C-alpha cells in the first residue's frame, strides 16, 4: 500500500477512479436500505403486526448506526478505509444470510436481527465512505460530489422496492382478503408460503455483497490520512482536546437525526400510507420509487447549481422550507393528492444530506474520523422517528401522524441559517 493521502489534499486517481468505486458502494447502500419500504407492509402481513410493530423494521435497521458508529471508527483506525469497506460488505452479507432461516420459520425477531446486522455493516461503510467522498475535491463543491453519490444511492433505491415488491407483495391484496376466511392452520400455511418469498432474493443479495467485498479489497482505492491537518486547520485547533468542543458538529449530528428521520418516514411509510388511503398494494408498491425519483431530481439540481448558483447552506434552508410546505400539503389533503405530497418530500430531502456533511466536518482536522462517526450515529434518527410515526398512526391516523415531520424540517432550516457556524472562530460561507 502506498503513502496515505492526507485529508487536506485531493485524492490522486489511478486505475478505476475512486469516485466510481465509492459510487458503486453508494448504489449498494441505496438498494439494501430502501428494501425496508417493502419489508414493512410485507412483514406486517406475514407476521401479523400492527403499525407500531411493523416500523420496528426501521428501528432494528437504523439503531445499529447508533450502536456501531463509534466502534466503526475504531475498526477503520486498525483496518484503514479500504479494508474497512470490504469488511462492511461482508457484515452486510451475513445480515442477508440471517433472512433465510427467519423466512423459513417466519420469526419476526430473527428478521429484525438480520436487519440489525445489515445496518451494522452499513454503519462501517458509511463511516468510511462519506468523509472519503467529501475530500475528493474542493470543500466548496463537496455537496455536488455527494449529490452524485446520492444519485447512485437513490437510483438503486428506486429499483429495490419494485424488484422486491414484485416478489414479496405479489397478489398481497387478494391474500389479505383470503386469509380472513381461513382456519388457523390454513392461514399459517399461507403466511409461511408468503414468508418464503424473500429467501431467493436475499440469497442473491448475499452473493453480490460477498463478490463486491472481494473486489473492493483488491481495488486501487487509496488510503486517506485524516489525522494530518493542514496549517490553517491545525492553528485553529491548537486548543481543541475533544470533539465536544466543536458545537457546529454536534448540531450537525442532531440535524442528521431529524433529517434521516424524515427521509425514512417519507420513503418507508408511503406504501403503507397509500394502502391506508384505500389504494391497492399492487399500486402503492411504486410510491417509494416516486419519492426517490424526487430525490434524484434534487441531486441533479445540486450538481448543476452548487456552488455556481447557490451555496450548500442556502440549499439546506430552501429545501427545508419545501419540506414543511409538502408535509402540510399531505396532512390537509387526502388520497392520491396526499400521497403525491409525501412523494415530493423526496425532492425536499435531496440536498440536505449532501450539505450537512461538508458543513459539519468543516475544520475538524484530526477529529474528522470521530466527527464522521458521530454524524453516522445521527442516522439512528431513522430508527426513532418512524417508530414515533407508527405509534401516532395507531393512536391518531396515518395522515395526521405526519405532523412529526414539521419540527424536524424547521430544525434543519435553523442549521442552514445559523447552526453550521456556531462556535467557529472564523465564520465560513461555503
TrEMBL record:
Domain Major facilitator superfamily (MFS) profile residues, every copy: 18-430
Signal sequence bounds: none
InterPro entries: Glc/Gal_transptr_bac, MFS, MFS_dom, MFS_trans_sf, MFS_TsgA-like
Domain of life: Bacteria
One GO location term (cellular component): plasma membrane
Membrane topology qualifier: Multi-pass membrane protein
GO molecular function terms attached to this record: D-glucose transmembrane transporter activity; galactose transmembrane transporter activity
Entry keyword annotation includes Protease: no
Subcellular localization: Cell inner membrane
Pfam families: MFS_1
Keywords on record: Cell membrane, Membrane, Transmembrane, Transmembrane helix
Database matches in Gene3D superfamilies: MFS general substrate transporter like domains
Transmembrane domains' residue ranges: 20-43, 55-74, 86-103, 110-129, 199-216, 249-273, 279-302, 314-333, 339-360, 372-389, 401-417
GO biological process terms, semicolon-separated: D-glucose transmembrane transport
Family statement drawn from the similarity comment of this UniProt entry: Belongs to the major facilitator superfamily. FHS transporter (TC 2.A.1.7) family.
Function: Intake of glucose and galactose.
Protein name: Glucose/galactose transporter
